Amino acid sequence: QAQLVESGGGLVQPGGSLRLSCAASGFTFTNYVMNWYRQAPGAEREFVASIEPITRATNYADSVKGRFTISRDNAKNTVDLQMNSLNDEDTAVYYCSARNRYTNSRYWGQGTQVTVSS
To answer: Is 54 exposed, middle or buried (0-12, 13-18, 19+ CB in 10 A)?
Structure first.
């Protein structure tokens, strides 16, 4: 059974940093593009970043470019999101998602709360 478990969320001051992690199990990790999405209160879920399984090519939302870095460890079946220079607009529930390269089917984690506040 496929499972994605996020960790690392919490409360951080503006300008601070946080690192999110996602542990994957129950599927062939290298067949999946890994993604981070987020959903702020009252807003729709939005794309944050993605990373290809083999080339490790990355893609970012304009709002996080230069501040966030996505990475993956195919040996450990994990994907991380390093978030720097956080501001209150980054407050959201962050979701890890796995998209199959061949079928486009997806798995989602339960989400982890990130709150940026002084």
So the answer is: exposed
